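In practice, a research group might receive sequence data for several interacting partners and want a quick structural hypothesis before committing to experiments. The following worked case mirrors that situation: the sequences arrive first, and a predicted assembly follows.
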Amino acid sequence: SAELRAPPDKIAIIGAGIGGTSSAYYLRQKFGKDVKIDLFEREEVGGRLATMTVQGQDYEAGGSVIHPLNLHMKRFVKDLGLSTIQTSGGLMGVYDGETLVFEESSWFIMNMIKLVWRYGFQPLRMHMWVEDVLDKFMRIYRYQSHDYAFSSVEKLLHAVGGDDFLGLLNRTLHETLQKAGFSEKFLNEMIAPVMRVNYGQSTDINAFVGAVSLTAADSGLWAVEGGNKLVCSRLLQASKSNLISGSVMYIEKTGTKQTGNPTKMYEVVYQTGSETRSDFYDIVFVATPLNQKMSNITFLNFDPPIEEFHQYYQHIVTTLVKGELNSTIFSSRAKDQFGLSTVLTTDSSDMFINNIGIVSSVREKDSPQPSTDGTYVWKTFSPEILTKQQILKLFLSYDYAVKKSWLAYPHYKPPEKCPSIILHDRLYYLNGIEFAASAMEMSAIAAHNAALLAYHRWNGHTDMIDQDGLYEKLKTEL
Ligand SMILES: Cc1cc2nc3c(=O)[nH]c(=O)nc-3n(C[C@H](O)[C@H](O)[C@H](O)COP(=O)(O)OP(=O)(O)OC[C@H]3O[C@@H](n4cnc5c(N)ncnc54)[C@H](O)[C@@H]3O)c2cc1C
Ligand SMILES: CC(C)=CCC/C(C)=C/CC/C(C)=C/CSC[C@H](N)C(=O)O
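A structural hypothesis for the assembly, expressed as C-alpha cells:
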C-alpha cells in the first residue's frame, strides 16, 4: 500500500446535519484516532432532520423517508444500534382541483386494472426507467467501498453511468420522459404530483432528481425509530468529535507565520453566545448550503477568491394538524367512505397545499390509529404558511396545529452545474451534491466521498481520485 504521511492535527466541520456528522464518522475512519475533529453547529444537531411535537408525540418535520437501497443510511442504523420503522401504508389519491383523477384501491389486482385502463403500460415502463437509473447510481457504493474518490459531483455521476447519466442533470424530467414516449396525461397526473410532494416543484426539475423523487414512491420506505435525527447524534458520538455550539462567521486563509505550522492553513472564526472565538485547522469541511440566507459564511484572504454561491433554495412549510379532514374538498363521497390517507395534487390543481397525508409518530410501529374522536395527525407541505382560514377549509375541526418553515432543497433549473467540492487546497464543500439531488443518502454519499478525497489528497494518492473505467475495473474484483 502507498506510504502515509502523519495525519492532520485538527479538522473543522461546519454543520451537524447528516452531511456534517457522517463526515465526522468517515474522517475518523480514514485518519484514525489521533486527529481532533471539531464540529460546529449553530442550531440543532440534525439540521434538516428534525421532529415536531403534537400532543406529546414527535413527528418527522423535515427529511422523513429513507429508501431500502440507501445503503449508507442502512449501515449507519445497523452500526449505531438504532431501530427502523416502516413508513408506507394507506391509500393514495390524486386531486386535480376538481376531482380525484386517480384513487388507489386496497385490492392489488383492482389497482393494476385501474392503472392499465387509464395509462396503459406507462407505469410499468416508468418503473423500469427509474430502476435503470437507480441500478447505475448504486455503483457508487462499490467505488466507495474500494476507497475511490471524485473531485467533482459531475465526475462522480459520470463514473457511475457515463455521458448519458451525467446528461440527466442537463435536461428536465419532463422533456426526458416526453422523449421516452410518456403521455402528457401520465406526466401531469402521476409524475407531477410526486415531484410536488417530494420537492415542491414541477416536472421541470432535472431528470436525475426526478428519478430520485420517483424512487421515493417505491415500497419498503423506512425511517428511524425515535426520529431520523438520532442518526446524526449517534454519528457524532461514534466519531468522538467535539461539538461546538456556535455560528461560523468567517473562514480565513492564514499565512504560515500566523500559525507556525505550514499545514494549519485555515482560521475558523465563530460566534458562541456573545463571544467571538477562533481556532486554526489543517482541513475544513463545509457541510451546509453556502448561501447567505442559510449559512452566511464569509471567506477571507483567499487568492483567487472563493466564488459567491447565489443558488436559490425552495421555501416549503411543514404543517402538522390533529383534526378531522374535510374530505368533501376532494370528493363528494360521504366522509366515512373517503378512505384515502394521502392526497397528492397536480400542478393545475391551484391548491394552497402540495399534498396532505396521515402520519405516524416516530415511535409508532403500526399504521396510525385514529383517536377516540376519529381524528388523525395530518402532515401537509405548502409553499407558504397556511392561514387559519386555509386550515379551517381543510379540516372540519382541529385541536392543534404546528408549523415549520424550511429552505428545503435547491430550486432545480436544468442545465444544472454543481458547485465545486474542492474550494481550496484543503477546504471541501459537500452540499454541491444537492444540485444533482437533495436527500439524506445524497449527503451521506457526499460525506464519504469528501472524506476519501481529503485523505487521498493529504497522502498524495492521486491514483485513487477521478479514476476512469472503474465499473469495468471493479467488475472482475471480488
Ligand atoms: C421538509 C423536508 C422534507 C424532506 N424529506 C426528505 C425525505 O423524506 N427523505 C430524504 O432522504 N430527504 C429528505 N429531505 C432532504 C434532506 O432532509 C436533506 O437533503 C438533508 O437532511 C441535508 O442534510 P445536510 O447535512 O447536507 O444539511 P443540513 O441538514 O441543512 O445541515 C446543515 C447544518 O449546518 C448548520 N449551519 C448552517 N450554517 C452554519 C454556520 N454558519 N455555523 C454553524 N452551523 C451552521 C445548520 O444549522 C444545519 O444544522 C427533506 C428536506 C426537507 C426540508
Ligand atoms: C438517493 C436515492 C437513490 C434515493 C432517495 C430517495 C428518497 C427517499 C428521496 C426523498 C426525497 C424527498 C426530498 C422527499 C420529501 S417528502 C417525503 C415524504 N413524502 C413526506 O411526506 O415527508
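Before designing any experiment, note the following. The chain has a mean pLDDT of 95. The longest strand covers residues 395-410.
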